[in-house]
Write a structure and sequence with these properties.
With about 220 residues, the chain is of the alpha/beta class. It has ten helices and six strands, in the order αβαβαβαβααβααβαα. It has a single domain, classed as HUPs (Rossmann fold, 3-Layer(aba) Sandwich), CATH 3.40.50. Strand 2, helix 3 and strand 3 form a beta-alpha-beta unit. Bound molecules: adenosine-5'-triphosphate and magnesium ion (MG).
Length: about 220
């Protein structure tokens, strides 16, 4: 197992004072949208989380073939989108690292900065949890966190549970909790396509991010 030598600890990156129940929301966030925000807030309130930290990816291993916006711009959009929620924060751990980012490394990084007995909840969409089997260091990941899988339109809730049932070791099944979030058919892919086609993206994402996209000329192709 490869150890990534992080240059600093999570509590120097984001304020973890008094945090015993931590939510982590990883993503490419190209761009961040209301689907991500609603899901994170539902997990926060539903699971009594002290903080939800968004972790924009550096170079996502599963998106190596496609063109993505430079990481500092995706990081900035994530900051803009989360600033109005006092429970939300953004970590630079993945953007400040060269090369691929792996969830197991990121969760370990946060685990080391929290007190023993603290809980980490890794928040994902149902589509992401379906790929869980292919993730690196899955055993370590399950040792360090519980997953909250939000159902998303187009991904059948039952199909997700059946797949997890077939592919996950029994000991891990209890560590995946499904939650239903208000039906939100919003995706970054759709937002990028809308911008490229000159269609409106208003109300699909925070206004500040909408303005940033326009000002930077992102996704125009
Ligand atoms: P893309 O279309 O480029 O793949 P995306 O909208 O899926 O973008 P990501 O940054 O890939 O966004 O996703 C980050 C996390 O947020 C993943 O766990 C994903 O499943 C989840 N997610 C994305 N959109 C939604 C949504 N509308 N509701 C709930 N979860 C979502
Ligand atoms: Mg996605």
């Amino acid at each position: 197992m490869s150890e990534i030598p992080f240059l600093f600890q999570a509590d120097e990156d984001v304020d973890l004072t008094g945090v015993n129940r931590l939510g982590l929301m990883g993503g490419t966030f190209d761009p961040i949208h209301q689907g991500h925000l609603v899901t994170a807030e539902a997990a926060r309130s539903g699971f009594n989380l002290d903080r939800v930290i968004f972790v924009p990816s550096g170079q996502p291993p599963h998106k190596s073939g496609q063109q993505i916006t430079p990481k500092e711009k995706r990081y900035l959009m994530t900051e803009l989108a989360t600033v109005t929620n006092p429970f939300f924060d953004v970590s630079r751990v993945e953007v400040s690292k060269d090369g691929y980012s792996y969830s197991a490394d990121t969760v370990r990084y946060f685990r080391r900065s929290l007190a023993a007995g603290s809980e980490i909840y890794f928040i994902t969409g149902a589509d992401a949890i379906m790929e869980i089997i292919s993730w690196k260091n899955i055993d370590e990941l399950f040792a360090n966190c519980t997953f909250i899988a939000a159902t998303r339109p187009g991904v059948q809730y039952r199909a997700m549970l059946e797949k997890l049932e077939r592919q996950l070791k029994p000991a891990y099944r209890d560590k995946v909790i499904a939650i239903e979030v208000p039906a939100m058919a919003i995706s970054s892919t759709d937002i990028r396509r809308r911008v490229a086609e000159g269609r409106t993206i208003k109300y699909l994402l925070p206004e500040t991010v909408e303005h940033y996209i326009a000002k930077q000329g992102l996704y125009r192709v």
